[in-house]
Amino acid sequence: MPGTPEAEAVIRVRDLAARFDGRTIFEHVTFDVRRGEVFVILGGSGCGKSTLLKHMIGLYAPAEGSIEILGVRMDGLDGAARVALLRRIGVMWQSGALFGSSTLAENIGVPLEEHTDLPAEARDMVARVKLGLVGLADAAGRLPAEISGGMAKRAGIARAMALDPPILFLDEPSAGLDPITSAGLDALIRQLARDLGTTFVVVTHELQSILAIGDRCIMLDKEAKGMIAEGDPRRLRDESRNPVVRAFFRREVLA
Ligand SMILES: Nc1ncnc2c1ncn2[C@@H]1O[C@H](COP(=O)(O)OP(=O)(O)OP(=O)(O)O)[C@@H](O)[C@H]1O
């Protein structure tokens, strides 16, 4: 079963510390992400969620500790091994980051052009299949300026999936979306996890999304400079005794 304790860990983070100019953002961060689960990184503003994501995809080097993705240690990888590993993960940034002068199909073709020998016609076919998976089959010829914010997020996910990565990282997917569009995106994430077996690592502080999509989560905290909770978000909401965790899930203001 995906996400069960028996499922294989596809990401292992051990005793990770992030520091900038001697300032500790977090330390002693240790967790596993299991194959096929939707894993959420949550916490208040400035606690280091994006910083953790950037460590996990190799943009930042750990001050301490280690990160292993699909059985490979991220740190110390040479150029070719690093590119090979990065090909196996997909990332969707908050903005969707689509190229404005290219159609959606062309946007999704970019990673295929960079990383495969597929001819243009085959790239276009793959791009249309990916757009179909995110519900944008009819929008392949449209430019980013011609689509809504929700569609841009879906297109960003389709592009992150271009090379069929087993792991997808999503940075604040609901940011800037209205609640209905956001709920639609949550449903899509769950559907992709279920139908394709893709493992998702999602950074978000949207409570509705966390409860809708998360199999498991960790919560970071700025004051604690590290993890203050790990587990099923619904159980944390109902059972956590940590006042900060309770306040987050119940939207209470701490005195
Ligand atoms: N490259 C960097 N250099 C220096 N400081 C950084 C760098 N990246 C992040 N930080 C600092 O690390 C802290 C955590 O930032 P981060 O963006 O990871 O938080 P976050 O939890 O994602 O916040 P938000 O929800 O507001 O996006 C902040 O104080 C930020 O200024």
UniProtKB/TrEMBL annotation:
Record organism: Dankookia rubra
- Per its UniProt entry, which superkingdom is the organism in? Bacteria
Specify whether DNA repair is a keyword of the entry.
no
What would you give as a GO molecular function for this chain, any one?
A: ATP hydrolysis activity
Q: What is this protein called?
A: ATP-binding cassette domain-containing protein
For the ABC transporter domain, which residue ranges apply? 11-249
Q: Which UniProt keywords apply?
A: ATP-binding, Nucleotide-binding, Transport
Q: Pfam families under this entry? A: ABC_tran
Q: Which InterPro entries match?
A: AAA+_ATPase, ABC_transporter-like_ATP-bd, ABC_transporter-like_CS, P-loop_NTPase
